[in-house]
## 1
Amino acid sequence: MTELSFIHRYEPATDPTRPPLLLLHGTGGDENDLLGLGRMISPGSTLLSPRGKILENGMPRFFRRLAEGVFDEEDVRFRANELADFVAEARKAYGLEAPIAVGFSNGANIAAAMLMLRPEILAGAALLRAMVPLTQAPAVDLAGKRVLMISGALDPIIPADNSQRLAASLSASGADVQHEILPAGHNLSQTDLQLLVRWFGE
Ligand code: MLT
């Protein structure tokens, strides 16, 4: 593993026609968590998978929160920029195109924040169980970026209007947003996988 500013896993592409994936785990996960998902949804893609630097009771995260669903937005901004700098470093070190972020929960929220604050870093994003990361969405141009959002109608952590606000805000910034709402909770389901495979195949 190359020494870069985040602990991470890197798997080089075996199919160079596939886009690189930036895999961003949920609270309590780590850099190993989403490698299997990445291989499944876009076989042959480069995988770049960092570990969040915040520890909440020993659980890695990508930014601080004050309570469940209540974010320390100053930290969200700082951490989104820090992670974007890591992606820029990794692109140079490994010779990568801009990746598509695939984030779950806390990882989806930092990916949404990066889209808003450092849009040049990502080619697009698949946001699984995401919520609005910043109450004031910065003006940003996301034209040409594809975003898949998959939410759970029964998610106890994310109110439906919150994920809908995020989808609306990304669309208003010009992103090509597909928002799917499944009869699921916060955890991923088989249907999430099917939707991801289809979206990556398009
Ligand atoms: C967050 O803190 O990013 C969200 O509440 C989701 C979570 O990680 O539980």
## 2
Amino acid sequence: MNGTPRIVVLAGDGIGPEIVAAARQVLDALGEFSYEEQLMGGCSIDEHGTALTDEVLEACRSADAVLLGAVGGPKWDTTDPNAPRPEQGLLGLRKGMGLYANLRPVRPSPALVGASPLREERIAGTDLLVVRELTGGIYFGDSGRDGDVAHDTCEYSAEEIDRIARTAFDAARRRAESSGRKPKVTSVDKANVLETSRLWREVVGRVAGDYEDVELEHLLVDNAAMQLVSRPADFDVVLSENLFGDILSDEAAMLTGSLGMLPSASLGADGAPGLFEPVHGSAPDIAGQGVANPLATFLSAAMMLRHGLSRGEDAARIEAAVDAVLERGLRTPDLASGTVVQPPTSENPAPEREVGTEEMTAAVLAELA
Ligand code: NAD
């Protein structure tokens, strides 16, 4: 990529503007970026009567990357089917930008392994990425009802499988650059039963031929669901079709036990801009209070650097800075209260200290300096 990267920023609603402003500070500490702030979601409904205008979609399509906060909130909740809804903006972006690959990394920060519902020794060392096909399969096939009988059709073309497989293999290679591990792709299917899965396995195997440095393993989805909780640290990239990926990515996300820490990326064709956003929503219950956890958005910005702007080293710096501030004991209230409280131990002597968005951001900036 030549010149200053152009990033469309969709701060959105609720805590969106707070966490995205914090993420811009983190990006600015790493280099020069040109930002274009645009409205999407509830704020766009207020201004334009629609969650996503054609102008904003066009701006996103011609950017180098799109950074999103979160959208939605009680103000726009409605039972009127004709009223505009904030989520329509998200769906419009996915469709309009051709985002067929959803990437969700699961990497519990060492200081937070105690928050996982799994035992510490089982979760330690987990660092995996779920690559889910997002625009095909049973969610988009023919469906219908005839009296008491209903059907949903799962359909995949070799071309759709080929492109998502390449996304997974490319991601495995990029991850290996910063981790030093041998890259591996675990492809999930149900090839013992489903014809689409047999085509899936065949095409993924073919694509693997172009990536001889990347190890490929195939797992049946039922087995994958078990292995993800019994040996999560053995996975690198998990590649899956839409329905299986929907379920497995939520299962994998729970491994961290902490919603405020999870980033995601949605990617389209090679060279087209991707969309990077935290997994959590707009948290209207805490908006404007200065207590939102900005770390999932920082980690989404890291994904943008790695997967969208080919700046893997800068991405790794953000990830290391996030780990460091957690190791120093800093916790936003969502991490400090309830689920994640950890007493100081000999390995983690820093006592926990509750901080707001601003102090957490300042601490990450200090780590980067
Ligand atoms: P939510 O993720 O917004 O909030 C769930 C709980 O987690 C809340 O208690 C919230 O305070 C807390 N939380 C979430 N993110 C946090 C953060 N960064 N720091 C601290 N605490 C955090 O989910 P919800 O309450 O079900 O939804 C609220 C709104 O967000 C709804 O309008 C929903 O439609 C929308 N939503 C948007 C997206 C998106 O933009 N991609 C995703 C999910 C939900």
